[in-house]
């Protein structure tokens, strides 16, 4: 049976324009990142420091979340806890209903994508407008993000120009990037002022001060968190750091790893609603903290590193699989290497475990990860969990459910042959002697490749003539 | 290792054994010429990596355990493959963590060298090029590059050959799409990767492709053969021996 993942992969591999868009974009991002780190030693020091900051925060996660909640509350920010996406959406719905809000303007938030918030609110008759340019573009086209930082990276300039012309026929057709951006800007400006509620994500939450930090480039994050009278921030529980001094190193490595920028254009620090006597800012600020499987990941020391992620997308930019199949092939909110470890853990190995197979374990992801998440090791662990017989011994959702009788039997036979040298040698000798009779069509392998050719005689046979000690 | 060892173990790997025995023969000849006695334990089969990467850890462990028993002496174990060396050096200690033979696995891991690493760092081999002028492209396996961190060794060995000119290809550090069972489990993605790799290598117009990984060579070479007009491709050991023996 062909899985949904395989079908989507096939379909996307067959779109040369999309593949070219990804190839070009990721090449550019890799070069820009490289240019940001001329000093290898400095990069490695910063990675170690950033890993330590995130690991420290996770080691005290429950305690830091309590401190965070206390300090946010003291600052006048209302904190809400959601175990599931549904609960998160209901919390947002309740806030909107209290304000009788029929629309919402959104800054960029991957957690709101995780919650399926737009779909949920639109079903209630609430208009959700994405204000991040990339999100705005894909929303126009009825799509989901194909990258966590650059949601519309799968589209090129011409495709976007055509889309704008189709959706805004009154505006003259242009392929000029600045003009296209200005069009979006004009449309969004009015919406910022009219919207009763603005929503955003969060990059870092500082426990000791009760501060929400937001990294962005377009100013839409600043607008959606300050112009409307109510601001709702949504994020995962893992985004907390202990102290304010933890933020600068993370910010520095985040922007350089993500887009190759030395620093972000806007860095927002939100520490309270509008205070008495202040002329602007929202009157109410809410924070919705989503668990959605994160506590479960937290409970496994080997998988915990997954939660160190600061969502820079460097692993995605450097992944040879992602660059070819694109973000939509994954069928998940988070694509690429981080998605391939995070999504199977959140949804279960029975649902997204196939993603853990979609990697050559080449290690390009962990080589660039700013917080040194051992992605290949976690992929390997998830592959193990998927097929293990003692599924009860692990908390990973869906453990053991990918085990099939035929695959297990194959490995068992393989192990038997490889632990019985006489059998192995007899088999390999026979195979090389009668290699002319071996099949040349090996299914998937031989679609683009010739079948591997066995040697005339094995190394084991040849070694005897070498004067090598065959003890 | 400060001093040059008198004797080493050689682990041939199953791909070298079955597909590229000349790579194993050449590697042992290079080692012997450098004055090292080579022991090839005949009961060796496979390092266990295919099962390890597929999640079948019990099966991987039983195969790995059989190999560990073959290297009792406290001498280096040299392997003409970054990925099998990576399996033994990096993953054996993980695979045997908490097992009764953990110490033995860690001991074996500590003695593992990838061939080019051993030739350069331990033997400090000096090569004299006897061949005709030739251009080559180098494909470094991901395991050699990242897991073992020895990608520069193949380059330094080739750099010693005065008549060999290395030509860089686009996206050189990128994976060729083999990834063991990945090529079988995700054939379409693997095909897209290896076809690009072949194009980048062909675009250099070199005479030959050199790698230290037989899995990559089988993958890349298989595409070239299917396309006809296969570019000659060789394991580094075979190439070095061919260029330097009288």
From TrEMBL, chain A:
InterPro entries: 4Fe4S_Fe-S-bd, 4Fe4S_Fe_S_CS, FTHF_cligase-like_sf, Helical_ferredxn, LUD_dom, LutB/LldF, LutB_C, NagB/RpiA_transferase-like. GO terms for molecular function: 4 iron, 4 sulfur cluster binding; metal ion binding. The keyword Cell division does not apply. Residues 299-328 form the 4Fe-4S ferredoxin-type domain. Gene3D superfamilies: Alpha-helical ferredoxin, NagB/RpiA/CoA transferase-like. One of its GO terms (biological process) is lactate metabolic process. It comes from the Bacteria. The keyword Isomerase does not apply. Keywords: 4Fe-4S, Electron transport, Iron, Iron-sulfur, Metal-binding, Repeat, Transport. This is Iron-sulfur cluster-binding protein.
UniProtKB/TrEMBL annotation, chain B:
Coiled coil: none annotated. One of its GO terms (cellular component) is cytosol. It holds the Pfam family CCG. The lineage of its organism: Bacteria, Pseudomonadati, Pseudomonadota, Gammaproteobacteria, Thiotrichales. It comes from the Bacteria. GO terms for molecular function: oxidoreductase activity. PANTHER family: LACTATE UTILIZATION PROTEIN A, UNCHARACTERIZED PROTEIN YKGE. This is (Fe-S)-binding protein. Residues 9-89, 136-220 form the Cysteine-rich domain.
């Amino acid at each position: 049976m062909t899985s949904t993942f395989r079908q989507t992969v096939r379909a996307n591999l067959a779109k040369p324009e999309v593949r070219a868009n990804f190839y070009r974009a990721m090449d550019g991002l890799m070069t820009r990142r490289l240019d940001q780190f001329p000093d290898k030693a400095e990069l490695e020091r910063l990675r170690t420091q950033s890993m330590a900051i995130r690991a420290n925060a996770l080691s005290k996660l429950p305690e830091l979340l309590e401190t965070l909640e206390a300090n946010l509350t003291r600052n006048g920010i209302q904190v809400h806890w959601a175990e599931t996406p549904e609960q998160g959406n209901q919390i947002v719905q309740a806030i909107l209903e209290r304000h009788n809000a029929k629309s919402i303007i959104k800054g960029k938030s991957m957690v709101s994508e995780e919650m399926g918030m737009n779909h949920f609110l639109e079903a209630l008759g609430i208009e959700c407008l994405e204000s991040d340019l990339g999100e705005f573009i894909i929303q126009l086209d009825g799509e989901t993000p194909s990258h966590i930082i650059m949601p519309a990276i799968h589209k090129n300039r011409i495709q976007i120009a055509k889309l704008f012309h189709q959706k805004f026929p009154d505006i003259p057709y242009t392929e000029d990037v600045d003009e296209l951006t200005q069009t979006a800007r004009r449309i969004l400006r009015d919406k910022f002022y009219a919207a009763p509620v603005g929503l955003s994500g969060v990059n870092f939450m500082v426990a000791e001060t009760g501060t929400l930090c937001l990294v962005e480039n377009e100013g839409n994050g600043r607008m959606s968190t300050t112009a409307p009278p109510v601001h709702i921030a949504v994020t995962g529980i893992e985004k907390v750091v202990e102290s304010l001094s933890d933020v600068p190193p993370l910010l520095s490595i985040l922007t350089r790893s993500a887009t190759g920028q030395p620093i972000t254009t806007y860095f927002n620090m939100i520490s309270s609603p509008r205070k008495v006597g202040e002329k602007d800012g929202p009157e109410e600020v809410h924070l919705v903290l989503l668990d959605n499987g994160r506590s479960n990941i937290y409970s496994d020391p080997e998988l915990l590193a997954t939660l160190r992620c600061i969502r820079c997308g460097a692993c995605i930019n450097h992944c040879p699989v992602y660059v070819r199949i694109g973000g939509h092939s994954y069928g998940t909110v988070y694509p690429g290497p981080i998605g391939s470890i995070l999504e199977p853990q959140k949804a279960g190995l029975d649902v997204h475990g196939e993603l853990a197979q979609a990697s050559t374990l080449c290690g390009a992801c962990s080589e660039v990860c700013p917080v040194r998440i051992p992605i290949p090791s976690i992929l390997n662990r998830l592959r193990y969990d998927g097929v293990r017989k003692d599924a009860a011994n692990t908390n990973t959702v869906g453990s053991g459910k990918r085990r099939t009788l035929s695959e297990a039997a194959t490995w068992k036979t393989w192990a038997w042959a490889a632990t019985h040298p006489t059998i192995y040698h007899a088999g390999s000798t026979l195979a090389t002697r009668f290699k002319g009779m071996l099949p040349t069509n090996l299914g998937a392998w031989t679609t683009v490749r010739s079948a591997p050719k066995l040697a005339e005689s094995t190394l084991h046979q040849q070694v005897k003539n070498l004067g090598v000690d065959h003890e | 290792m400060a001093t040059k060892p008198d004797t080493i173990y050689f682990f041939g790997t199953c791909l070298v054994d079955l597909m590229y025995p000349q790579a194993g023969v050449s590697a042992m000849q290079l080692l012997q010429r450098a004055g090292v006695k080579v022991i090839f334990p005949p009961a060796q089969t496979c390092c266990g990596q295919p099962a390890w990467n597929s999640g079948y850890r019990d099966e991987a462990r039983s195969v790995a355990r059989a190999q560990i028993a073959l290297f009792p002496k406290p001498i280096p174990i040299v392997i003409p493959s970054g990925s099998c060396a990576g399996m033994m050096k990096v993953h054996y200690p993980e695979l045997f963590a908490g097992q009764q033979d953990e110490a033995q696995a860690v001991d074996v891991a500590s003695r593992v060298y990838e061939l080019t690493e051993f030739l350069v760092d331990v033997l400090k081999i000096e090569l004299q090029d006897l061949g005709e002028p030739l251009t080559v492209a180098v494909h470094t396996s991901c395991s050699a590059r990242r897991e073992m961190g020895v990608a520069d060794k193949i380059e330094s060995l080739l750099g010693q050959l005065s008549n060999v000119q290395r030509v860089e290809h686009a996206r050189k550090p990128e994976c060729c799409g083999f990834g063991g069972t990945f090529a079988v489990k995700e054939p379409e993605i693997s095909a897209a990767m290896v076809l690009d790799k072949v194009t980048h290598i062909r675009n250099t117009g070199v005479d030959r492709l050199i790698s230290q990984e037989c899995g990559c060579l089988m993958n890349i070479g298989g595409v070239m053969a299917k396309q006809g007009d296969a570019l000659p491709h060789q394991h580094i050991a075979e190439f070095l021996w061919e260029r330097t023996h009288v």
